[in-house]
Specification:
2 domains, Arc Repressor Mutant, subunit A, 12 strands, alpha+beta, homodimer, Jelly Rolls, DNA-binding, 5-stranded antiparallel β-sheet, 4-stranded antiparallel β-sheet, 7 helices
Chain lengths: 233, 233
DNA sequence: CGCCAGTTTGACCAAGATCAACGCAAGTGG
DNA sequence: CCACTTGCGTTGATCTTGGTCAAACTGGCG
């Protein structure tokens, strides 16, 4: 098990970045939080490019502006786990005290806002609204992680995949379909399954007419109720 | 699978609690944080007693003074998952925005400090040292949860049990042994396994002379290196 | 002493992993 | 423009880990 994952292009020079000072971030969750725009740097990453690696100094955190990012941990023997996928508006990277224990990579081409820790701490101390916002983000992450613990610890392959599809469609606010920008391998590593099992479950859902798949990365819900029922058992 | 769990004695009247105003909390991690003593209420809970339930209003968070607490989620069909065990010095219960999604129960008789949210927010705003401490606690929780994600998603039964033993002994700073105040069922529900599997793995470790068990709730390490190696694979 | 809850062990079973092959579309080079 | 490659995705056959079911054991307690 645990075959090759897409190999990263480590060409750091390809990062196109620029001060985001004057720009206005188009992302729902950023409304009214122009403060972080002032202390952040906008960066672009290409597909499969590394944003930070395990072992890096964790001197900043990030906010996704567009695209998809995966947070993962890789073991020497090839086992990988993706703790979360981040989409526009999601924050990531405030997990580390010192060294990063996880790495972050772009799943698709992505733009992120990079926020240095020092400036953030200063902002926390002088802006209670921002401080509360950040605390909220951390709580949300914690909450998400704990739901995932249940999923990994106590749910079957079918339930995991159904829950994943429903969760993604809710996060993207699309009730009738869901886009899966990541590979089957990414999904498997997120759900604690193998690629084959993910495929088989999806095929099973198609056979049972719960979903339809115009292509491998777009799923349309034919029976959302049933899917939700499976997800919540 | 998923048989009966210890049934809770819901006798709320049996809670013995008292203002902790003048008392000094004996717990390493509380050093220099007398501030929270002032806003907290000390409470005692007996074995298996509920501290809060799923669906309660999350108007406060807690800090364990002595004893062991488990944070868990129970599904209608009996499947349960224990997200974490908390020992003296650990904080818990700041996961909720509104309603609690998890419940907390005493694993052994336990004393906890109950901290109302309102007073905490005020303290956060006037005491930056305390604010930073609390942020640290949250990050620690997040970090722990993410390690557990890997454990549940990608580790074998042996690796999970070994990791659990090593982790507990590290948290209690006892290199040669570890106390397991919780039942095998609790351990299983924490590691995403069944009671039987936990037993079998422990028996296997005994047979391989990695551990010895004077009784069911005390394990002595005979070969800590090997155990750590299994845990980290 | 007998009961009860929790723990342990064994026999058997099934969900999901592994191994292997094939399909399919996009990209590459002759 | 078309063979060839390469990276995913899908499917089938087989195997293994850990779950299920059942029974025995253990220690504490009325």
């Amino acid at each position: 098990m645990y075959r090759q994952h897409a190999n990263l292009s480590l060409d750091a020079a390809s990062q196109v970045w620029q001060q985001a000072s004057a720009e206005i971030v188009r992302s729902g969750q950023l409304d009214g939080l122009i403060a972080i725009e002032r202390i952040g740097t906008r960066m672009r990453f290409f597909r499969d490019q590394e944003i930070y690696a395990e072992g890096d100094q964790g001197t900043c955190w990030f906010k996704v502006i567009s695209g998809t990012v995966r947070i993962s941990k890789l073991l020497a023997d090839g086992r990988r786990h993706i703790t979360e996928f981040c989409f526009a508006g999601d924050s990531f990277g405030f997990d580390a005290f010192e060294e990063r224990v996880f790495s972050a990579e772009a799943v698709t081409d992505a733009t992120v806002l990079r926020l240095p820790r020092g400036a953030t701490e200063r902002l926390i101390e002088e802006d209670p609204v921002f401080a509360r916002h950040l605390r909220g983000e951390m709580l949300r992450s914690l909450d998400a992680a704990q739901h995932r613990l249940f999923l990994l610890g106590r749910m079957t392959a079918c339930e995991r995949v159904a829950a994943f599809l429903v969760e993604l469609s809710e996060r993207h606010d699309t009730r009738h379909r869901v886009d899966l920008p990541m590979s089957r391998c990414d999904i498997a590593d997120h759900l604690g399954l193998t690629v084959e099992t993910v495929c088989r479950v999806l095929s099973d859902f198609k056979r049972r007419r719960l979903i339809a798949a115009p292509n491998a990365h777009r799923m349309e819900f034919l029976d959302r109720e049933a899917l939700t029922a499976i997800a919540e058992h």
